[in-house]
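Support request, please re-run this one:
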Amino acid sequence: MQLKLITHYLQLFRRYLEGAGASERLYIWTSQRTFQENWDLEASNLAAMYDASLQSTHSRRLWNRESYEPKRMMTAFMEMEPGYVYDIFRDLFNENKDVAGRADRFIYYCDELLGLYKERRPLTKENSHYHNDNYQMVSLYLGFRYPAVYTLYDADAFRKLLQLLGSTDIPAANDIGRFFKVMRTLYGFMAKDEALMAAHRARLDENQHFMGESLLLSYDFYQFCRKGVVVRCRCPFSVPYLYELYLRTENREQRTENREQRTENREQNNLHENNHHSNYLRIDHHGSARTIPRTRLSGFAGR
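Re-run finished. Output below.
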């Protein structure tokens, strides 16, 4: 990663934090606080404790969305084999062991639990425990349990971040160990930026968000980089402008397609102006002729 690129995009991120749209992912800080306040592996009812730890009044999509129900299946495993699940979480949270090995073992143990679940319920239609999801759920457990050490993993967004920051070594496969190291490095840069940290803390509510040191800020940063945002700033002449920062959210083919679409729109506009007495316009684009009614081009008039 290149220092000048890191500095550049952190400056853009600071502007984002100072803007009105900076609250879009704050619900995760709320969920992290809920987890911190309820997680207790020594609880007498493991399933009830787990359920209380993963609650949100804003969004449950981190653990429950269409065709993705890791919370429901882990709850079922806890009700079936609480002792076994206790052991696999204790192994996952053992900081004396390599994190990549812990993550892989956890998924393997979930495979074993699913096999046992299906064996005991021959008529079940369950075919997944939903934790073999490119470490999404495992990283959530780790990030919520140890906020200053881990954060949520998004494989595609991480690769795009590395490209954006000038890395020449883009992992083809998941590398969760490297991911966590990069997240801690980026957090270190952010922690030294007083203005950025002040903007971040200003958006938190001590009554609902986790207020401690959290690598969720690194997660917020790389999701910001993946999606791109609209940042309001001023030109040298103090005229307001909106700069849309795509930040490589589209691949080369998509950008080419967009340029071609704009070219076609201009052609349609020109034809509309030159043929305003005609009911239909015939456009030949890339060798494919087609007839377009005037009504479809009326929106281009006067642009």
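The chain has two domains: 3-245, 252-300. Residues 252-300 form one domain.
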